[in-house]
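ok trying again, last paste got cut off:
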Amino acid sequence: MPLPPRTDVKYFNPEIERLLFQVKVIVEELEGLVDGVSETQFHWSPQPGAWSIGQCIDHLNVALQQYLVILEPAIANTRKSGALSEGPFVYGFLSRMFLRMTLPPVKRRFSAPKVFVPGTQKKMAMVLAEWKTLHERLSKTLESASGIDLKRVKVPSPASSLMKISLGMAFWILTAHEKRHLWQARNVRNAKGFPAA
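nice, full thing came through this time. structure:
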């Protein structure tokens, strides 16, 4: 006799499951990165004009906040309009190429769009609290996208409303962008001259 379905576990389509796992790994990586870091170390920069650990994280907060205000209503509106699919989803060549360029290790550097520029000298506790809140929100947003046609639905980039990408690829680029700047922040922590405390 087959077992009855479990009611205590949420199931999402496979791509959403993979994206949720990426977010979990990113959050855990950040926890390891800042473990034992002092306020001085958080704000230390390896050279003039280079970002500190704190600025790398704040940049991710700024970018994620601006993505979420686009993604959340797009998902809600799509749920109403009925553009649904469980996938699998195959994205275009240009999107996949941009995703590869975004992932670390960084081979090609880009200047951050003005809308994504981090603040300076924000308190570590404030930056990390914002990070936690935003990533809980990101996970909920991903869960809400399960069943949406992740390829068909297009969303604008916060950096340029003229550039539109598939909803699913927006999520993948978001996670790649976070990995890129956590890699950058890790390099700051490993840099010569990093304060002892």
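cool. The longest helix spans residues 53-81. Residues 58-189 form one domain.
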